[in-house]
Design goal:
With 179 residues, this protein is mainly α. The chain has one domain. It is built from 8 helices and no strands. The model has no long low-confidence stretch (mean pLDDT 89).
């Protein structure tokens, strides 16, 4: 796919909000389909992988995502899995676990609010960085500042991965830059 088309899709990316996640319980294969369908546009590098059952089982095993209830996944499972899938591009599982704990511990924050805040910030930052190559926002609240910086790191990595595929930066042009 052409770089311009990839950027166009990323600028149109919508991270599902809490109320848009399925209200009913779903099975592992449905979770995998849902995540891969909604987050596929973020896979811009050849090294990016689709979500698999073993990945999800690993997140459960490492206590980042709660275990399913009788093989059923609920809305909160999907919210956690979306966050983990997005953040794992840049952060380790232990860092993600710590960030989730911080975000959900915020004052006046329940799981729905914490997730929706993450989704909105990620969308805002991703769209701005893909359009302009950078983004800045002053946040006085330390929790929101941390969240902003976390999602900015992920968006910047996605942007860099796109640009690394730009013909401008191919090996022949890189040789010219050295001269």
């Amino acid at each position: 796919m052409e770089i311009r088309e990839i950027k166009k899709e990323l600028v149109a990316f919508h991270c599902p909000r809490w109320d848009e996640l399925p209200e009913f319980d779903i099975y592992m294969d449905q979770v995998i389909y849902y995540l891969n369908d909604h987050l596929a546009v973020l896979n811009v590098a050849e090294s990016d992988k689709e979500i698999t059952a073993s990945m999800i089982n690993n997140y459960v095993k490492n206590s980042i995502v709660k275990a399913p209830i009788r093989k059923h996944y609920k809305r909160y499972h999907l919210a956690f899995l979306i966050v983990v899938t997005i953040l794992k591009r840049v952060y380790s599982l232990s860092e993600i676990s710590q960030m989730i704990a911080i975000q959900t511990a915020m004052k006046r924050s329940d799981l729905k609010t914490a997730y929706d805040t993450f989704a909105a910030y990620f969308e805002e930052v991703l769209h701005a960085i893909i359009n302009d190559g950078s983004y800045s926002k002053a946040e006085k609240d330390p929790y929101r500042r941390l969240l902003f910086n976390v999602v900015q790191a992920v968006a910047l990595k996605i942007y860099a991965q796109i640009e690394l595929n730009n013909p401008l930066f191919n090996s022949q042009n890189s040789e010219n830059l050295k001269k």
